[in-house]
Fold:
Amino acid sequence: MKPEDAAEFQQRQIADCDLTAGVAAGTRDSFERLRTVFAYGVLYYDVYTIVGDQALLIYEQALRDRFLEWCAGTITFRVPQAPDVIYTITSYDDVKKRADRMTRQRAKLVVANQAIEFNGMLHGLRLWARTAGLLRGRRSRAVEEALARLRKCLTLSGILEAPWSDGQSVGPLAHR
Structure:
């Protein structure tokens, strides 16, 4: 394949990946930055490899932004043998601090009258999103688990050990 054809092919991979209007500004900015880096990566492979790693981080950022939107300033934890506890939160750092504290007390996050384990990390965010009805289906669950495993590899080693199509990792982000 000629270099020009390769560049055109890679650009087509992400050309129609647009975020919906309701996506939070932080996630939108990160996504657009990722799309720009992807375009430069066609010319410089080392930059291109960053796209996949960053896509995994944006996936978690998108879930955090959606969580903040969903909770609208308060989160409720169900503590064993005690009344529910409601906390006011203003940022995801507040959520994470409360989740850490509540996890030590074996408390669970209340979502749609259900109590779920919630640690504030990607695993807890995925449980929350499924319970809240934002993530559905068996096929999606398999994709989520694969993304979570790759995210864990990125966090532990700083690099991903298995190559995959970076263009394909950008597309699913647009649909979340």
About this structure: The mean pLDDT is 80. DSSP finds seven helices and four strands in the chain. Strands lie at 74-78, 85-88, 108-111, 114-116. The longest helix spans residues 45-71.
